[in-house]
Amino acid sequence: MLHLFEHVKEECRIEQIPFDPDIQVGTMIEVPSAALCADILARKVDFFSIGTNDLIQYTIAVDRGNEKIAHLFQPFHPGVLRSLQMIVEKAHQANIPVSLCGEMASDPLCSVLLAGLGLDELSMGSQSLLQVRKILRSVSYEEAKQLADHVLEMESYLTITTYIREWMHDRFDHFTTI
Hints:
single chain; alpha/beta; TIM Barrel; 56% helix
């Protein structure tokens, strides 16, 4: 696809249509195959954006739209977290930033873990922004990294979910009922 992009840029040059020749190109990482090829993709683009809704669904093979199995849609599944870690590592090795969008980005319960995994940006709706920002400003990167490193050693989403809820509860009063 990048060859098509370069072709369009060349057409703009020929037709003297103004454009930014340094426009950045990124890619969405939404399926396991893209996550597994993150090192290859990182050499070809300027940034990554991870779409967690689809990445989670396809990584753990759970259709979040099917009400019979939607409860199995787990953002804290070890396979999901390890995929996120790998994507971030490969992007940062190539010196490109990684943003994350989807429900996971706007979930305050996920915010510290995502920071600890090294995400550079979270894209969320305005309804979540203040709470997530307040949480992230109240913990250091070292604390977030320790949390991420610890949960990456865990073997089940139930253990991870319980640990993160307790970790958040110990630091933030409003997480007592979550």
